[in-house]
Amino acid sequence: MAIKGVDIRSIVSTGKNEIKLCALTPLEYNGISFQPVYENGELKCVKVNGTSTGQATYSLEATSQSLKGEYVVSGCPEGGGAGSYSLCIGLYSKETGAWVSESYQTGPDLAIDCTPRKTSISILVRKGITCNNLLFYPMMRRKGTSGEYEPPKQNEMKKSLTLWSLPDGTHDEYKDGKVIRRVGIKTFDGSADEVWTARSDGTGYAIVVSDALNKNTRNLVYCNRGIFEYGGNTAKGVTVLGGAKTISYFIGGEALDVLVWRSWLSQNPLVYVYPLETSTIEDVSIPILPSYHPYTTAYTDSPVDPEIEWEILTSSNNDAQIADLISRVAALESEAVNNAQN
Length: 342
What we know:
Number of helices: 3
Number of strands: 24
Radius of gyration: 29 Å
Strand content: 35-45%
Shape: flat
Strand order of the largest sheet: 1-15-16-23-19
């Protein structure tokens, strides 16, 4: 698996049905009975009965999902409608998490573009509706996959993996259990080991930096809070690399007490990234993600689309080896029988 220039906190693999199912339990609400039916630990369906005295909702997901691409929602029994019973798909802003709108799957499959919105699925029964042993088979699958119901299956692996990428194309990379670091990072957060001093002209603060950061010039170093350059620019938000391995950060006004500056940094760290002169290699262990035959989807929580090469292993990869083992065992058994007879 190769991953380049991303910030990942979780890696997820799912089966065809990508509903992030919460722990479902029986529920009686506003006259409606919701009964999840499990078989071998997997959701077979949700059975719905009763006459609603008010709107009744049965959430299938604990939180909204941030998926990408075109999906198809299915599983509502025939005869449903937006004003009766349906699978309700809530749509939420990916930026703020605020509710935007909702759509209803009521019999025919419903196509949803998940790229601009987060989604959350629930069973919805409107007031005054009678449900007589209705069976919901909720499924959210990628466009182009078959419509036969498959229970939701999902595994989430928590993993902190930050790979930096610079505008010039220099990037860290994960591959085959190792991270190749080509980008250096220096963070100033006001901690006690940082020896900041106020500049004598009162325009900002200065600190002595490492050789690695000092060797890079304005064209190679990037700062999260302004411009990095080599020269005499003293505008607000500019970092200048000076002599004696010193950088200065200009605040655009009279410098405050260094203790006040440290306090500000603790809430607003300065982060500098730059290409390393010599790359380094780190061993990183990422556990094998389970696959779900015959469909497996894998994705990360990265805000950008990482470049990933997945190697997904299923039992079908081993068919030839298994057949060969069976053949060898049979030959050994035959040889043992012949030896016993002789």
